[in-house]
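Tutorial handout. Part one gives the primary structure; part two gives the three-dimensional structure as tokens.
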Amino acid sequence: MGLFDELKNAAGAMLGGSAGQSPVARSVLDMLGQGGGLAGLVQAFQQKGLGDVVGSWVGTGQNLPVSPQQIQQVLGPQVAQVAAQHGITSDAATGMLSKILPGLVDQLTPGGKMPSGDALEQGLSALRSKLGL
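Part two.
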């Protein structure tokens, strides 16, 4: 099973449906393309003492796991917003994010480099297409 199948399955399992139809999966990708975007996400993890975790996602080696509790610690307000927006619990949202964020960040940082501007938008568009969003 490839990464995109795993991402679809993780999102679908958390939401009781297919990730291709999931507005939550779309919200995650939208979150990475707005405001501080991907760089802001990386910075937030670093500021909360999880730089080694997020660094593994950006780097070229094995992705370290992240727990739902760590997601809540770093992304609390965003998790609450996504959960409320889509009528799911914060626990469901943090569970899904803990499963899919490492792979999404990994895919958006080819060769261990942070994309910016047009390169980030192209990466997000490619992920949306591959995930059927």
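Part three, for discussion. The radius of gyration is 13 Å. The chain has one domain: 3-130.
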